[in-house]
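Homework-ish question, so no full write-ups if that breaks the rules, but can someone show me the predicted structure for this set?
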Amino acid sequence: MKVSFTSTQTPKTKPEDSQLSFGTQFTDHMFLMDYNREKGWHDSRIVPYGNFSLPPSTTVLHYGQAIFEGLKAYRCPDDTIQLFRARDNFNRFNRSAKRMCIPEIDTDTVLEHLKDLIRTDREWVPSSRGTSLYIRPAIIATDPYLGIRASHTYRFFIILSPVGAYYPEGFNPVKIWVTSDYVRAVPGGVGEAKTAGNYAASLYASEEAQREGYTQVLWLDGKEHRYVEEVGSMNIFFVINNTIVTPALNGSILSGITRDTVIQMAKKQGIAVSEKRISMNEICDAHEKGWLSEAFGSGTAAVISPVGTIRYEDRVLTIQKGTAGPVASMLFDEITAIQYGEKKDPFQWTEKI
Amino acid sequence: MKVSFTSTQTPKTKPEDSQLSFGTQFTDHMFLMDYNREKGWHDSRIVPYGNFSLPPSTTVLHYGQAIFEGLKAYRCPDDTIQLFRARDNFNRFNRSAKRMCIPEIDTDTVLEHLKDLIRTDREWVPSSRGTSLYIRPAIIATDPYLGIRASHTYRFFIILSPVGAYYPEGFNPVKIWVTSDYVRAVPGGVGEAKTAGNYAASLYASEEAQREGYTQVLWLDGKEHRYVEEVGSMNIFFVINNTIVTPALNGSILSGITRDTVIQMAKKQGIAVSEKRISMNEICDAHEKGWLSEAFGSGTAAVISPVGTIRYEDRVLTIQKGTAGPVASMLFDEITAIQYGEKKDPFQWTEKI
Ligand SMILES: Cc1ncc(COP(=O)(O)O)c(C=O)c1O
Ligand SMILES: Cc1ncc(COP(=O)(O)O)c(C=O)c1O
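A: Not a homework solution, just the prediction itself:
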C-alpha cells in the first residue's frame, strides 16, 4: 500500500483550458509499479513524468503484450474533483490482464494510488465545462527476451492528460463507414480485451474510411461479416421504434463502461433497451421503413457521439437529417451532468478524491 | 545510404558456443534509423547496443503498431559468413508494414546496412554446427500521442543475438495441441502480417497447451474452427501417402520463408507437394487409415521440427512412433547444409557478407 513520492524539480506550464486537445499534454507526475515473480507487484511510486529506458529486446515492442484503460476525472462546480466509474475500469483492466496472461492488480490499492496521483497534480485538472483529466493506466511486458511466451516482468503505469471539450461548438454528428472487408475481432480471439494489438489491427480500415471522408469504421462480426459489433473506440446504439438497440456483448466487443452507463440511464428514463445480435440488413430495413430515428456511439472520450451518416456497401443512410437526435441529446446531458457533479448521482458512479 | 558509426567503448564478453540460448544475449552494436514525415527514413546509424528512451505515451506501448522479422546468418566451414534469404525477409517486412500503416523501407539499402552491422560484430557469429546469428529487424511507432491513428514517427532497429543449436542432441519431436476454442487470425484480419499483437493474442492458448504438457498450439481457421492454419511460430506440413501437404496461404497464415524453402527443396528432391485447405478431420482420417506418415513444422528458429504427437479434442494422434521421419530428416539435412555453406546453393538463397 505504501507509495514513495519524488516531486518534480521542473514543473511544466499548465495549458489554458482553451488550448487543450486530446492525449498530447501530460501532467508533472506519473504513477509506476513493477512486477516480477519473486516480489509480485512492487515498488509503487509517484515520480516526475519522464521517459522509460527500455532495451530494444523488450517483449512489448515485439509481441505486443500490453493492456490499457481510459477513464476520466472531472472538476465539479464546488471545485472538488471526482472520478467516474473508476472501479469498473480497473475491473475491466483485470479481465484484459487475464486474457493476455498479465498478472492482475489489486483494484483497491491501485485506486488509492490513482487518487494520490491526481491529488499531486490536482492543479492540472481543467475546470471549463467539457474539459476533464484523461487517465491512462497501462501494463507493458518488460522481459528483455525474444522468446515468444508471457513475460515474467511487467511495468504498470498511470499517466494523466488534461483534455479539451469534445464538443466546444455543440454536438457534432459523425459519419461512419461499415467495413465488410476488414475484421477487428472474432469469437475465440482477443476482441473483448483492451489490448494493444486490437488497435493496431484497426488502422488500415480506418485510413481507408478517412480517405472516403468518414470519421470512423463500424466493424461487423468476424465470422459472417453481417452483424454489427462496434465503432473504432465506441460502442454503437440505434433508436428503432423508440427502443434503444445495441449489439449484445458476445466476447468480441469491448464491454464499454459508457455503454453500460447509457443502458442504465436510458432504463431510468423509461426508455426500452434491447441488447441483441443485430445485422446491417436489419438496420437498413429499419431505415427504409422510417423506424430508425437515431444512431449514436458511446465512449469515454466523447461520452455520446451522434451518428449522422452510415455508409454500408453501396448504401448511404442519413439519420435524423444528419443532426443529433433527442435521445442522444438527453443521454449526453444527463450523463455529463452526473460526471461534472451538477446533478445527484443515484447510480453511485462517481467518487470524490 | 550513408550510415554513421559509433563504436562501443565497453565491448561485452562473447559467450561460449555451448552457453548460447535463444534471444537473451545481444551483440555489441545495433542498427537504428528514424522516420518522420518531413525526412522519411533518416539518420541511419550503427551504435552501441543500448536502451531506448521512450515517453510513457509512445504509441507502440498502447496500440501495438509494430512489425518485426526473424532471419539468420551462418558461419561457413571456410569462416565466411552468409545470410539466408534475407531479401525475402525484408520483402515480407514491407508487406507487414503496408498492412499495419507503417512506412516501407528500401530493402536494398537496409540489406547493406545489415551487412555493415554484421561485419562490425562479426566475431559474435558463433561457429559450431547448429549455432547461428539470429537477426531481429523491427519497426515501432514512436509518436508521444494517445490518439488512435497511425503514428507519424517510427523507429527501425536491427539487433543481433548469437543463438545455440536447436537440436544439440539430435532431432526432438514436439507435441502439439490443436485448439478449437481460441483463434489467432481470421480472413480480413492481420494474421498474414508479422505484427506484435498476433503474438500477444497467442499466449493464452499456448499457456493452456503447456499446462497439458504440449509444446505449441496448432491453430485452426477463425471462421469454422475446422481447417489447419499454422503452429505458434511455424508453418505445418503433413506427409500423406508420400505427398507433402501444407495449408495454402489464405491471408490469415504467415507466409513462412522456411515454408517456401521446404516446398522448393521437396520439389527438387522429387517429392510431390500439395498446398491446399485441409481440415483436422482429414488429418485424423489419414492417420486412422495409416496414410499419415509424418508431420513437421517449419520456421527460422528450428528449420524443421518433427511433430510426434497431435492432440485434437479427445483424440491423440501419435505419428511415426513419436520420432522424426525420413522426409523431415532429409529436408533438415539438405536445407541446413545450404545454410551452413556445406553444399552448393542452386536456389540462390544465400548471400555472403
Ligand atoms: C474498441 C472500443 N470499443 C468501445 C469503447 C468504449 O468504451 P468505454 O465506454 O469504456 O470508454 C472503447 C473505449 O475506449 C474502445 O476502445
Ligand atoms: C506465426 C508464424 N508462423 C510461421 C513462422 C515461420 O516463418 P519463417 O519460416 O519465415 O521463420 C513464424 C516465424 O517466425 C511465425 O511467427
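Now go work out the reasoning yourself. Hint: Chain A has a mean pLDDT of 96.
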